[in-house]
Amino acid sequence: MTFAENPTEFPVTIDADKCIADKGCTVCIDVCPLDVLRVDPQTGKAHMRYDECWYCLPCELDCPTQAVRVSIPYLLR
Ligand code: SF4
Ligand code: SF4
């Protein structure tokens, strides 16, 4: 799997101000079937670790603070 290198092009972005991973939340990480999300040890917040995504949306829908945004490519909509 490709490491996610360029944050501006990630399919999934996480608003660090809203994310409460530093308080123990791992919902988005747990629900992702591709296992591409992680808690960033530097920030304590969730982030996209691997640049792979099925655009299946449970990470966005289940986040208790609406911190996750999945950008679905135009051709998949
Ligand atoms: S579900 Fe939301 S609040 Fe919880 S770790 Fe993921 S982005 Fe952060
Ligand atoms: S949209 Fe699906 S595959 Fe993509 S990060 Fe969220 S849960 Fe994982």
UniProtKB/TrEMBL annotation:
Keywords for this protein: 4Fe-4S, Electron transport, Iron, Iron-sulfur, Metal-binding, Repeat, Transport
Gene3D superfamilies: 3.30.70.20
Lineage, highest ranks first: Bacteria, Pseudomonadati, Pseudomonadota, Alphaproteobacteria, Hyphomicrobiales
GTP-binding keyword on record: no
UniProt-recorded Gene Ontology molecular function terms: 4 iron, 4 sulfur cluster binding; metal ion binding
Descriptive protein name: 4Fe-4S dicluster domain-containing protein
Limits of the 4Fe-4S ferredoxin-type domain: 10-42, 44-73
Superkingdom: Bacteria
InterPro entries: 4Fe4S_Fe-S-bd, Fe-S_Ferredoxin
